[in-house]
Specification:
Distance between the termini: 21 Å
Number of helices: 4
Order of helices and strands: HEEEEEHEEEHEEHEEE
Number of strands: 13
Shape: elongated
Length: 224
């Protein structure tokens, strides 16, 4: 199944419990574990550090940090909300802001520091939690990193949640027992921000796409 967005905040654990009992989602599920193909650009997050340079007016060069409210403070033109923007979008926004005081500004934005990629594993594993994603890792590898399955784990119906857009996450059921037997197609390669939930009993029906706000039922920590 596919769900499009992950829950913010601490409600993810509640969703996990709700699904493991007998979810009330619709039954459109895909048999294949592959997700929709996409190549998303990095979007700015809190505490990201940026270097902004102006080709013809270096006196405006500056270094800024994305503040907790998603804004950056720009020299002479004030605050600009940048949370969730790509570097290309931010470059255009800065150029537009400075167009009021500079003639056709040529701006370059460089990301100098950013949050480390991560994945989350919850449910019936020995060590549920948030882990740094260091290099290529598959779903079954991630379960091993989290200490492996507990005795009551439903290894044939593990759920993988992947951000599809700002509002949705994509959801897949993965048979990890098959994946561990050598079925490479079943053993999905993780991407930054992916979340895995291992149920204790049959999960039931799931929607292919789910609103981000609903993911809090599965995990006790924020996914994004």
């Amino acid at each position: 199944m596919t769900i499009r967005k992950l829950y913010p905040g601490g409600r993810l654990m509640a969703l996990v419990l709700a699904l493991s009992g007998a979810g009330n989602a619709s039954e459109h599920a895909d048999s294949a574990p592959q997700f929709a193909t996409r190549s998303p650009r990095y979007r700015l997050q809190l505490s990201d550090e940026l270097e902004i340079t102006f080709r013809f007016t270096p006196e405006f060069n500056q270094k800024v940090t994305v503040q907790p409210d998603g804004f950056i403070s720009l020299q002479d033109v004030g605050d600009l909300y940048v949370g969730g923007l790509t570097l290309e979008e931010l470059t255009q926004a800065i150029a537009s802001r400075y167009a009021g005081i500079l003639r056709e500004p040529v701006v370059t934005v460089k990301l100098t520091s950013f949050a480390k990629p991560f994945f989350i594993v919850g449910g019936e594993v020995a060590k549920p939690g948030k882990y740094e994603l260091q290099g290529p890792l598959t779903l079954s590898d991630a379960v091993a990193v989290a200490g492996g399955f507990t005795v009551g784990a439903k290894t044939t119906e593990v759920l993988l949640f992947r951000r599809f857009s700002d509002e949705l996450v994509e959801v897949k059921r993965v048979n990890v027992k098959v994946a561990q037997s050598g079925a490479a197609r079943e053993d999905v390669r993780l991407r930054p921000g992916d979340s895995i939930f291992v149920p204790r009993s049959r999960v039931g029906k799931l929607e292919r796409f789910m609103a981000v706000s609903r993911l809090g039922l599965y995990f006790p920590v924020p996914v994004f």
